[in-house]
Design a protein that fits this description.
The longest helix is centred in the N-terminal third of the chain and has 26 residues. The chain is built from 18 helices and 14 strands. The strands form four sheets. A five-stranded mixed beta sheet has the order 2-1-3-5-4, with helices on one face. The chain has a five-stranded parallel beta sheet with strand order 7-8-11-6-12. It has a two-stranded antiparallel ribbon with strand order 9-10. α4 crosses α5. The chain is globular, with a radius of gyration of 27 Å.
């Protein structure tokens, strides 16, 4: 007689799951109530598995594909810790929820999904998800380094083509002759050096998505060929006479204004109309300040949050990041975070003094904004303002640097060159003040670097 193996009781499993979910909500309600409503259901909330004390509230259907297990804990020493692939611990101080919210948003986007916290960015992602469900080409516009390729991958992953290939090519990275063969393919012997046939990226991306980055750099001759491919759904390889049908969705990216390129005769108007069915525009990072903290925590997760490395960003560090103008956008932010990780060493938290920018920060103490400039002391005498600033032709970063230098020199004069009191009045560390003074000397903005400790 065959023995019958006991089967797990589904109702008991559901009860345990419900109990675990209730416990998490009860213990961490303040954080969850302010963050969960901001998350998209399909690609964030449905993948997020919350837990605490090493136990997770798995849904009745089991662990979802691509799940992120997030263990929440209260602690006076906040930290993000990468426990294993797809499992993160967020320990936070419930008395100050601003940083934990940003860290939570970063955790929910793990797995290569976009990180956003700014209202405009969240609205853009909602719109992009709706556009992804259609079959129309997508045009992504925005400055260099704003995350256009990340958004292109998001459109692909949210579409019915998600199971197909995603292939990206930079149209500015190679000569016209090579680019034509790479995109459309060629027969053996079609041109000098074509020792074998190539199918081309359009055919390689069949059933998926082809990202044409920097499409504004595409030569006019190839623009005409691309237009025909979009209209007819077929490619004609070099040296061939028979078109080949392809099923590819085009996502095009540009950091130029294509309407202006059309007016200048560098871009085909008919191709612009074919691509510009529903354009999506990414703003510069300085215009979406709400993204900076979640992005910074996301980069911290990517590059640190392991034993012997920083696992948190201080309020001062985030304030400095949010005050910067970010001429290099998200790419510059990642450079700054990676540099801060190195400077922090084995410190638990990245502090304000670890944030070193490629260009000077825009911030200036509000208390100094209206303060009259005292007479310069021998410890720190400013050089005359550069001609470009006097003439009003300087860049924003140059003006910001000059303003910051003026505030530092005024504070030094008020405190008779005492660096400790100067740093305290400016709300920065003495180490940061030394870095600022060295930078000012390099730019000729002070004649001496005296000052007492």
């Amino acid at each position: 007689m065959n023995s019958v193996q006991p089967q797990p009781c589904r109702s008991a499993t559901r009860a345990r799951t419900s109990e675990a979910q209730g416990s998490v909500l009860a213990r961490h309600g303040a954080l969850l109530e302010s963050t969960l409503p901001l998350l998209a259901r399909r690609w964030q909330r449905d993948r997020l598995v919350l837990g605490m004390d090493g136990r997770f509230a798995l849904p009745a259907g089991g662990r979802p594909a691509g799940a992120v297990e997030l263990e929440l804990a209260h602690s006076d020493r906040p930290a993000l810790t990468s426990l294993a692939r797809g499992r993160i611990q967020l320990a936070y101080d419930e008395r100050a929820l601003s940083q934990p919210r940003a860290a939570f948003m970063a955790c929910a986007a793990q797995g290569g999904w976009p990180i956003a916290g700014d209202e405009a960015s969240l609205a853009l992602l909602t719109l992009a998800e709706r556009v992804a469900a259609s079959a129309i080409p997508v045009l992504l516009e925005g400055p260099t380094g704003t995350g256009k390729e990340v958004l292109a991958r998001f459109v692909h992953r949210c579409s019915h083509r998600a199971g197909g290939p995603f292939i990206a090519v930079n149209c500015a990275a190679m000569p016209e002759a090579m680019l034509e063969g790479l995109l459309f393919g060629h027969r053996k012997g079609a041109f000098t050096g074509a020792g074998e046939a190539r199918e081309g990226l359009f055919r390689a991306a069949d059933g998926g998505t082809l990202l044409l980055d920097e499409i504004g750099e595409l030569p006019l001759a190839l623009q005409a060929k691309l237009l025909r491919t979009l209209q007819e759904g077929e490619v004609l390889p070099l040296g061939d006479t028979t078109p080949i049908k392809v099923d590819v969705r085009i996502v095009a990216c540009t950091n130029r204004t294509l309407a202006a390129e059309v007016a200048a005769g560098r871009f085909r108007e008919d191709l612009l109309y074919r691509l510009n069915v529903f354009p999506l525009e990414l703003a510069a990072l300085r215009e979406r300040a709400g993204d900076i903290a979640p992005l910074a925590f996301g980069m911290l997760l990517r590059h640190a949050c392991r034993p012997g490395m920083p696992g948190w960003l201080s309020a001062e560090a985030l304030a400095r990041l949010e005050a910067h103008t970010w001429p290099g956008n998200v790419r510059e932010l990642e450079n700054v975070i990676r540099r801060a990780i190195l400077l922090a060493g084995e410190a638990h938290t990245i502090a304000g003094e670890h944030i070193i920018f490629d260009r000077p920060v825009r911030a200036m103490a509000a208390s100094l904004a209206s303060a009259p400039a005292p007479a310069a002391s021998p410890a720190a005498s400013p050089a005359p303002a550069p001609a470009a600033i006097r003439a009003g032709t300087a860049s924003l970063s140059a003006v910001a640097f000059a303003s910051e230098a003026e505030a530092i020199l005024a504070a030094l004069a008020r405190h008779d060159g005492n660096r400790v009191r100067t740093a305290q009045s400016l709300g920065i560390s003495e180490r940061t003040l030394r870095y600022r003074l060295a930078s000012m000397r390099e730019h000729g903005m002070m004649a001496a670097a005296g000052g007492r400790a």
